[in-house]
Specification:
The protein has helices at residues 3-19, 73-76, 87-95, 112-130, 135-140, 153-159, 169-178, 195-215, 234-241, 293-310, 314-320, and strands at 23-24, 64-65, 144-147, 185-190, 224-227, 245-251, 262-268, 279-285. The chain has 321 residues and is α/β, with parallel strands linked by helices. Strands 3-5-4-6-7-8 form a six-stranded mixed beta sheet, sandwiched between helices. It is elongated and about 70 Å long. The structure holds cobalamin.
Length: 321
């Protein structure tokens, strides 16, 4: 399609958006009035600027399209099937699940609302992945930070899971200096694949684990935070601190629009060479629909006690218990 045809289509869409009141903030210089039309005498009807004028970097025109946030519950779970034969049943179905159902279609394609929701949810996911855990939250719990062998930021973290499983030399020195050695339980907080997951759950789960460990008469090591953290780093933690049990709170890989899900990975005396077969996990920890963080806190302390009792974790614990 040539540019003039494309411009025509874009201009027609913008005209319709203006007529529908969905567009504001277009400041049109006189020059955008087509040359073959006489200049309007007064109160001109809005005329869509040529496509080149819609790019703020090349002109002083700012185009704002105000649409409601598609990720709010009201819009996310709105039935969009045209003329459903049983609207009440459709609503019930939609309310019974967080899955994307009853979204309707535009011919064989998604409708605009579904597309915008996908894009909004994708942005939530990206934010959770690329953001660091809020420093204020870490300070609230007195957590100091050490790093794995990732030196190239989140991009490298995503591309090199192997480096995210190794504590840096500096981290090992810091742990040697600051941490109580050989505690019964070592609690560690890692960003993993979602900072939002730690931010959503730490305030609830941390005190429950702390109290649960104390109530069981066990010692809790010095808790800390690992930046650029993968599950396998538990081995290096075990080598550095030699606890009975490591509890690693870590952000799970986010789903589309769901970034608050956290896991606790656990291992009995983890050490170099251990694999996931030596570990256990309590997953999908989040409020309203997942494993409640308060319950999860109590549950992981129980599992830790079981690990100590059987001196095993992972597959070995399943065989022993
Ligand atoms: C990605 C993923 C995988 C990937 C891991 C690959 C990778 N390198 O990332 C693959 C496809 C290999 C996988 C396999 C399995 N997985 Co898986 N996995 C997930 C998923 C979707 C995300 C995990 C995550 O975000 N981890 C956090 C990041 C930061 O960790 P990471 O260091 O990058 O990656 C490690 C962990 O993901 C870990 N891991 C992944 N799955 C499991 C399962 C168990 C039991 C353990 C101990 C560790 C583990 O393996 C990775 C390498 O160390 C979760 C869903 C969820 N809600 O958490 C399920 C999930 C954790 N997996 C699960 C299961 C059951 C398994 C399998 C046992 C399935 C099977 N029967 O073979 C295997 C065993 C895995 C193993 N490593 O030995 C369950 C665990 C349920 C439970 N409470 O026991 C979950 C919760 C899915 C579910 N809802 O059923 N998994």
């Amino acid at each position: 399609m040539d540019d003039s045809k494309l411009n025509e289509i874009v201009e027609s869409v913008v005209r319709q958006l203006i007529a529908a009141g969905a567009v504001s903030g277009i400041q049109q210089p006189a020059a955008v009035v087509p040359a073959n039309q006489p200049a309007p005498a007064a109160a001109p009807a809005p005329v869509a600027p040529p496509i080149s004028n819609l790019q703020p970097s090349t002109s002083n025109i700012a185009l704002t399209i105000d649409l409601p946030d598609p990720t709010t519950d009201d819009l996310r779970y709105k039935a969009r099937v045209k003329n459903p034969s049983d609207p009440a049943a459709l609503s019930e179905l939609i309310n019974s699940t967080t899955a994307r159902i009853g979204v309707g279609r535009a011919g064989p394609r998604y409708n605009t609302a579904s597309l915008l929701l996908f894009q909004g949810d994708h942005a939530i996911t990206q934010d959770a992945l690329y953001r660091d855990i809020d420093q204020k939250l870490l300070d609230e719990f007195g957590l100091f930070t050490v790093q794995t062998n990732i030196t190239g930021g989140k991009e490298q973290f995503l591309l090199r899971p192997d480096l995210g499983r190794q504590l840096s030399d500096e981290a090992k020195r810091t742990l040697a200096e600051k941490c109580v050695k050989k505690p019964n339980i070592q609690l560690v907080i890692g960003d993993g694949l979602s900072a939002a997951a730690i931010e959503a759950n730490l305030r609830q789960i941390f005190p429950v684990i702390k109290q649960g460990v104390q109530a069981a008469g066990l010692t809790l090591g010095t808790p800390f935070h690992i930046k650029y953290c993968r599950v396998g780093v538990m081995n290096d933690i075990g080598d550095a601190i030699q606890p009975d049990v490591v509890l690693l709170l870590i952000g799970e890989r986010p789903g589309l629009g769901r970034a608050e899900s956290m896991s606790v990975y656990m291992g009995y005396q983890p050490k170099s060479g251990d694999t996931d077969a030596d570990r256990d996990v309590v997953c999908n920890i989040f409020e309203n629909g997942g494993t409640n963080p308060l319950e999860a806190g109590a549950f992981v302390v129980q599992i830790a006690q079981k690990m100590r009792q059987h001196q095993a974790s992972g597959v070995k614990l399943k065989l022993a218990a």
